[in-house]
């Protein structure tokens, strides 16, 4: 394979007995997959210079370490799929030289503890999925990823608390932020989260904070907010004006029904969790009717 200069596509997925794969020529290669090769522990030696837009998939392989030399000189990779690589402990800092990288997926890399400090150098990165890893403190440089559209963390063990760095008016293109089951407590979200001017979808399901940053109301583009199973949340913050959809537990909906009716003018859908019987729905219906009636009375009084 080291001599196959015209090889365009090499797919070795599900070769479960593959132990050694010494080298591959990448001068013409556009796609390389060693996914599901669970016994392959070493990445192959690269011959030749990679073409632009090459994709590399290594999900569920047994590879323990990514050689820094690959990323130091082969800089045209656009997509890295490293999902569920159980033996992967760290990413080499040279991965941050991949200026063409658009998508980096490492969910399920259960031993991966950190990203390189220079992550902010990935100028063209649009998708970063790091769910079900041990990364609880992303490097502060991550906010420099101004083309990033989708960012996902979460799925931590008990006792590991996630902390998101101050936004500092960065992440200007971010549309989806998922921090589901991240063991977030008060202070885990930055006070300036409201400066994420392009954010449309914010998933904070299953976290342990009691309060949310007040600046959430400044998320002018936000359309969907998921606060399901946030059982320690004491009250809803003032919600963004353009919010269309809210996922929240029943007790919090009951507690905040007046604000939801009177202040959230664009809210079209509220999905309730822990609504296990008709009594809950009856209570909500009664509270909703009472607040709507009160609102109509206020409007009539104002008109007169």
Describe the model.
This protein has 304 residues and is an alpha/beta fold. The protein folds into three domains: 1-53, no CATH class; 64-148, Leucine-rich repeat, LRR (right-handed beta-alpha superhelix) (Alpha-Beta Horseshoe); 169-303, Leucine-rich repeat, LRR (right-handed beta-alpha superhelix) (Alpha-Beta Horseshoe). The protein is built from four helices and 14 strands. The protein has helices at 68-73, 250-255, 257-263, 278-303; strands at residues 9-11, 23-25, 31-33, 45-47, 54-57, 77-81, 103-105, 127-129, 150-152, 176-178, 201-203, 224-226, 245-249, 269-273. A twelve-stranded parallel beta sheet has the order 1-3-5-6-7-8-9-10-11-12-13-14. α1 links the parallel β5 and β6. α3 (257-263) packs across α4 (278-303). Residues 295-304 have low confidence and may be disordered. It comes from Nicotiana undulata.
The Rg value, from CA coordinates, equals: 24 Å
Number of DSSP-assigned strands: 14
Q: How is the largest sheet built, in terms of strand order?
A: 1-3-5-6-7-8-9-10-11-12-13-14
CATH fold topology of the largest domain: Leucine-rich repeat, LRR (right-handed beta-alpha superhelix)
State the end-to-end CA separation. Answer: 84 Å
Classify the beta-strand content into a percent band: 15-25%
The whole-number mean of residue pLDDT values reads: 85
Topology:
Blueprint: E1 9-11, E2 23-25, E3 31-33, E4 45-47, E5 54-57, H1 68-73, E6 77-81, E7 103-105, E8 127-129, E9 150-152, E10 176-178, E11 201-203, E12 224-226, E13 245-249, H2 250-255, H3 257-263, E14 269-273, H4 278-303
Parallel strand pairs: 1-3, 2-4, 3-5, 5-6, 6-7, 7-8, 8-9, 9-10, 10-11, 11-12, 12-13, 13-14
Keywords: Plant defense
Pfam family, one: LRR_8
Organism: Nicotiana undulata
